[in-house]
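During the first year of the project, the team set up a workflow for recording each protein of interest as an amino acid sequence followed immediately by a discrete structure-token representation. This format lets reviewers and collaborators read both layers of information side by side without switching files. As required by the reporting guidelines, we include two representative entries from the current panel. The first entry is reproduced here exactly as it appears in our internal archive.
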Amino acid sequence: MVFVLLAVTAVATSAQNVVNGRVTDHTGLAVIGAYIVEKGTSNGVITDMDGNFEIGLTTTDPVLTVSCIGYKDQEITVGGSSRFDVVLAEDSELLEEVVVTALGIKRDKKALGYAISNVEGDNLTSFSKINPIEALSGQVAGLNISGSGSGAGGSSKVTIRGVSSLTGSNEPLYVVDGVPMDNTGGVDAGADGTGVYGGTDYGNAANNINPDDIESISVLKGGAAAALYGSRGQNGVIMITTKKGVKDNESLGIRYGYQITLSTPSILPEFQNGYSQGSAGQFMATDYQSWGQKMDGAAVTNFLGREQVLSASDTHPYKEYFKTGITHNHNVSVSNRTNKMGVYFSFTNTDEKGIVPQNRINKNSFTLRFDTSIADFITLDAKANYIDQKAFNRPNLGGSPDNPVYTMYYMPRSVSFDMLRNYQTNSGMPVIWTEQYSDNNGNIIPGDNFSFAKSPLLSNPYWSENLNTNKDTRKRL
């Protein structure tokens, strides 16, 4: 559908230069909101609820252009008349939406006997530059997208019209330029990250697609839409069409785009601020629970062996630990098209820092595409894509002791991140609020008083981000 927006301004004129009339469709119904503009000027009006209009003229030989979405434009030479009844004809071509269906076939959307949704590439540019599938969130009915919470470069779980299998995969089939693609990967090459010790999410294959190269995405819903793909398409199909050389333009096209994105946690869980570390109303310096003595100003000795005044904290642990994520995306594309062939080249650099400290991904993507018409019935289309991606310190998930969210869930309210910033003792042990021991000088410091039977397996988040790190490299052609 094509939308046209015209600037309309009011012009003061004399009464003898005013014309009026009414705009209707072929059935005689009033066309509300039709634009009547004096050609060659910005002088125009809009029809009212009854289709009526009145416009003052400013030129010597005025011509009026009448337009409305869904109707063909009509021009009227005013001459000596002062009254016009305009009948607009429907423009069926404007109302027809062409979409890419199975096997790359283009069809009119209204002629299809099954559900399909289409999203243009321009609507994807304001979303994640690492995972383009996240850009479909909220744009397609029946499509559910959930991230793994694994920071920059994490995978997304996609279902169309709900879950269809309890034991098998519910992921749709991905087809890029007519070629089916395996989208497996994700957490530890297939694990869901919800086990006892969690896992690390390395992203799935859809992360290899450069969002700046996408022209449109069609989502085929249901078995009828994906029948040509057999059992692989039983959960629906996400069809991705990438860009070619410039359309209807024989000149060289050069485009540069830059985007910066900031991210922060959108939902913060609520924590109680009334009780300190311990249980049964008693403060216990090495307890992982948070139901100890009331935080009413009493002085206690904490797990570091230091005196501490118990007082309610007004700082949320998420805000105290997480950073503002920032993404820089640079894209340069060059395209050209002649009568029979087109060339498209694109380079994209994406540098993303996640909200978890030290989490970072840098990705370079190169795309070269060439298409030519060999004969009236033969077209050659070739594309090469090279990706070089480096990721550092991807967050752990689930019940991993290196998962900062898991740590914060168990961290007592009387323990602050300031107590944990010096994350390592002189003997090389991590500083954890559930452990204590005495050094050679008799000083109480974190140590080996930890009971696995009573406490969950925990770690210091600063220890994890600085010492227990991970990194991975992906190079794919």
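The second entry, processed by the same pipeline in the following quarter, appears below.
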Amino acid sequence: MGGRLLWSSTSDLIGRKNMYRVYLGVGALMYVVIAQLGNDSKPLFICCALVILSFYGGGFATAPPTCGTSSGRTRWEPSTAGC
């Protein structure tokens, strides 16, 4: 839940496209760090895993507004068509 709040608030500040770039870049970096150094340091592994897990909540919080603006809708309304 912390990821939903933190990353969606960050998205409001830096923009949705930039937020997805952060998800991709930092997420890839965290996966590489876990693969290379995860066995050496348990605290490092836990920190990287927590950041990665927080991105899942942030992605779910950031996706609906992104779908809405990319489909041309400016307010929420029921739609039968998906994103």
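For the second entry, the following points were noted during internal review. The CA atoms of residues 5 and 58 lie 7 Å apart. The chain has a mean pLDDT of 78. Both points are flagged for discussion at the upcoming steering committee meeting.
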